[in-house]
Specification:
Helix content: under 10%
Number of strands: 18
Distance between the termini: 25 Å
Order of helices and strands: EEEEEEEEEEEEEEEEEE
Oligomer: single chain
Largest sheet: 18 strands, antiparallel
Radius of gyration: 21 Å
Strand content: over 45%
Length: 235
């Protein structure tokens, strides 16, 4: 199985295909999986399509004002029609202050037959528009998750610390091309390290990435080494 991504002239994703090898026909089949629609470079609709059925099963629509996202709706689609259901139907409303974004998420309640507030997401940004803090607040106003993010001089994320719920720290290292070469996840004394060996093409885009994963835990079961290869077509 593989994936093919098509971009439009603005550099935004337009279509995503799932590629499967058909052994009977001895060739690849290309099945549409995602489709994106834009207005003035803003994403207005995204369709998720069953790559085996060819039918839309989820639709995400967005509304903007002055290029700022005001509302996002997620709909479950069955037999071409919207179906209201728990964990499949929700919408988000966004408000803005200087260096802050607040999103209220409403999920469909099957018992009440209406949408109810599920949680509130608060995002805080620095002067360079980097996300530096994120808080998740439940419907009762209690903060249940909080992250603090740190960047280097090139605005690359180097540290993400979660101080509530499941306290943990993730750190990142980069190469001169700006790609992650090491990722360390630490929680309660356990450290899981991912390292990446990367090969590039003549345009400086990566075409092969090898991932190895290790841990300081005695109970850790070694993961296999993963190799991801990309073929990039330029036009």
């Amino acid at each position: 199985m593989d994936e093919l991504v098509e971009y439009n002239s603005d550099g935004n994703i337009e279509k995503v295909y799932v590629i499967e090898f058909d052994q009977a026909k001895n060739k690849n089949t290309y099945n549409l999986h995602e489709r994106y629609f834009y207005e003035d470079k803003n994403l207005t609709k995204k369709e998720k399509i069953g790559y085996r059925t060819g039918e839309v099963y989820e639709e995400i629509s967005c509304k903007y004002q002055q290029n700022k996202l005001l509302r996002k709706d997620v709909k479950t689609i069955e037999n071409g029609k919207e179906v209201l259901k728990k964990n499949g139907s929700f919408y988000s409303e966004y408000t803005y202050e200087p260096n802050k974004e607040t999103g209220k998420v409403y999920e469909y309640d099957e018992e009440k037959k209406t949408f109810v507030l599920a949680y509130v997401q608060h995002k805080f940004f620095d002067a360079k528009k980097n996300l530096i803090q994120e808080k998740l607040e439940d419907k009762h106003g209690e903060i249940y998750q909080q992250n603090h993010l740190t960047y280097n001089s090139e605005n690359k994320l180097i540290k993400d610390t979660q101080s509530k719920r499941f306290p943990s720290t993730v750190t990142y290292q980069y190469n001169k091309e700006g790609d992650v070469t090491e990722n360390n996840y630490e929680s309660e004394g356990t450290i899981v390290t991912k390292k990446y060996a990367i090969k590039y093409d003549f345009n400086g885009n990566w075409i092969e990435k090898t991932e190895t994963k290790t841990s300081n835990s005695k109970n850790y079961i070694p993961d296999p080494t993963y190799i991801i290869k990309r073929k990039i077509v330029y036009y």
